[in-house]
């Protein structure tokens, strides 16, 4: 296709594919705009890779696996050490690009990169993470040990809301374990992801070990069904995640699918009032609510119901602006389509009888009149049958429910089908212990609004928020990206006594 032009006559960037160590201009006839959500400026065009290009990427990864799996652990670890140093060096530059294409504030973009960097740092410990086990003399002269070996070509499908962190959850750990990788970034904001991929190549990742293709459903389906793909890691919406899990599973792949959420924060009246309100507003409206771990539901228990006016007053103070502008608290949502969906859900809340305490629908941002902005929006009087409660809004909308007791709050949270994260705000150790014991959600925060664990632990979302039993980082992901081989061995000296034929199942 002919190169597109910007209004000033300069050539519009066309995002490339990475196949077998080469930056490839796609031959696709389908290209999509990458749009700045604050200005509607077209930043670049991304191709939807052809079937032949996807096949070529997988074939390159399959060839590279034959030698990469034999690469010493120390050599893989040193590449990860180099990568983490490069990410630190270039993080501010990448954050500017990330903010422009995704909409989040510069500070939040830097946080996006840093949380991914933590996983790369953890991958530098692969020498101890990938150890097997050994037991000597389990029977007469018999030893048993396990090997953790790479599984082959793996694929990753990442979402728009964390274009740095989520890719860094996936490919560094996968290739550190000795696998090769095919990455499909979000087609909405792949520019910052590609900058990280460039750094991985600079760090010494060999040709074919990391490959990148872009696209939509056709590319996703190709990754889920190709005979040479052994594992698929996905983060994104529930609808797509369920499709990926089912399709890849039917084709014999290992799959981890991290999906939607409806995260509750339960507030007891003994909680530290100022700290709790700050946490709720930050976790509810930060990143314009576009986090799978965002606090989207507040459950006020007992006398904590009196906190609603303070919650509203604090949310009203948040500054809505382009993410690149200093002092911005809430940037735009990622696309016009996303904005339209959020506005429909807000309208449904009004129609279904919730009280709109704070209405962010008609906000105007001077200088960014075309931006996809929605201001902080707060509902009270919400019931569990309303759409604003049953659906993941994925926007700057916080809904408030009220109950009388902690037991009622626990029952309410456990009745919700999602299980990504939840939090309790209290100064009572007894209440906290009861909550963490009885709550049926994978990740629990105590006076922590977004309980995403550090990479030494595993991301442990559950129930309707997760398909597959192993999380995307920490010790669990080493299990996901490796297969265990158990070896039982016995050695004889030349003058050993012959035991004769043994027809029983036991070892002697």
UniProtKB/TrEMBL annotation:
Keywords: NAD, Oxidoreductase. PANTHER family: MALONATE-SEMIALDEHYDE DEHYDROGENASE (PTHR43866), METHYLMALONATE-SEMIALDEHYDE DEHYDROGENASE [ACYLATING], MITOCHONDRIAL (PTHR43866:SF3). Residues 23-487 form the Aldehyde dehydrogenase domain. One of its GO terms (biological process) is thymine catabolic process. One of its GO terms (molecular function) is methylmalonate-semialdehyde dehydrogenase (acylating, NAD) activity. It comes from Pseudomonas fluorescens (strain ATCC BAA-477 / NRRL B-23932 / Pf-5). NCBIfam families: MMSDH (TIGR01722). Its EC number is 1.2.1.27. It comes from the Bacteria. Signal peptide: none annotated. Belongs to the aldehyde dehydrogenase family. Gene3D superfamilies: Aldehyde Dehydrogenase, Chain A, domain 1, Aldehyde Dehydrogenase, Chain A, domain 2. This is methylmalonate-semialdehyde dehydrogenase (CoA acylating). SUPFAM superfamilies: ALDH-like. It is an enzyme of class 1 (oxidoreductase). Pfam families: Aldedh (PF00171).
């Amino acid at each position: 296709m002919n190169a597109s032009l910007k209004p000033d006559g300069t050539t519009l960037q066309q995002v490339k594919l990475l196949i077998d160590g080469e930056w490839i201009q796609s031959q696709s006839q389908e290209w999509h705009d990458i749009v700045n959500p604050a200005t509607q400026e077209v930043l670049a065009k991304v191709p939807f890779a052809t079937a032949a290009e996807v096949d070529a990427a997988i074939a390159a990864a399959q060839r590279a696996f034959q030698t990469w799996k034999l690469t010493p652990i120390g050599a893989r670890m040193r590449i990860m050490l180099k990568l983490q140093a490069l990410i630190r060096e270039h993080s501010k530059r990448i954050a500017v690009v990330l903010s422009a294409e995704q909409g989040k504030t510069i500070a939040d973009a830097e946080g996006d990169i840093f949380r991914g960097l933590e996983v790369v740092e953890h991958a530098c410990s692969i020498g101890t993470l990938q150890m097997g086990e050994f037991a000597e003399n389990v029977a007469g002269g018999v030893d048993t040990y396990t090997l953790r070996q790479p599984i082959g070509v793996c694929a990753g499908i990442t979402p728009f809301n964390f274009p740095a962190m989520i890719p860094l959850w996936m490919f560094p750990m996968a290739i550190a374990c000795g696998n090769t990788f095919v990455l499909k970034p979000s087609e909405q904001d792949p520019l910052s992801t590609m900058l990280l991929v460039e750094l991985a190549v600079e760090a010494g990742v060999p040709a074919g070990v990391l490959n990148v293709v872009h696209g939509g459903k056709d590319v996703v389906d190709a990754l889920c069904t190709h005979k040479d793909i052994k594992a698929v890691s996905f983060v994104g919406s529930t609808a797509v995640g369920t499709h990926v899990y089912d399709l890849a599973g039917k084709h014999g792949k290992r799959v981890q699918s991290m999906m939607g959420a409806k995260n509750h924060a339960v507030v007891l009246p003994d909680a530290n009032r100022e700290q709790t309100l700050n946490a709720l507003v930050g976790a509810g409206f930060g990143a314009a609510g576009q986090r799978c771990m965002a606090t989207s539901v507040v459950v006020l228990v007992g006398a904590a119901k009196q906190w609603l006016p303070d919650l509203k007053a604090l949310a009203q103070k948040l500054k809505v602006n382009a993410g690149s502008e200093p002092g911005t608290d809430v940037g735009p949502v990622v696309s016009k389509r996303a904005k339209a969906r959020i506005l429909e859900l807000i309208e449904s809340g009004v129609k279904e009888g919730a009280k709109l305490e704070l209405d962010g629908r008609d906000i105007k941002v001077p200088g960014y009149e075309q931006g996809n902005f929605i201001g902080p929006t707060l509902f009270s009087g919400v019931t569990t049958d309303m759409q604003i409660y049953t659906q993941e809004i994925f926007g700057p909308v916080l809904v408030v429910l009220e109950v009388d007791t902690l037991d009622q709050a626990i029952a309410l949270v456990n009745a919700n089908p999602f299980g990504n994260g939840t939090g309790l705000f209290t100064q009572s150790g007894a209440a906290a212990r009861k909550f963490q014991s009885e709550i049926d959600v994978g990740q629990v925060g105590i006076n922590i609004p977004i309980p995403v664990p550090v990479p030494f632990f595993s991301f442990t979302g559950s129930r309707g928020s997760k398909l597959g039993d192993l999380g995307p980082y920490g010790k669990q992901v080493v299990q996901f990206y490796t297969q265990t081989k158990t070896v039982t061995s016995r050695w004889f000296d030349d003058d050993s006594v012959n035991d004769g034929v043994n027809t029983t199942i036991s070892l002697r």
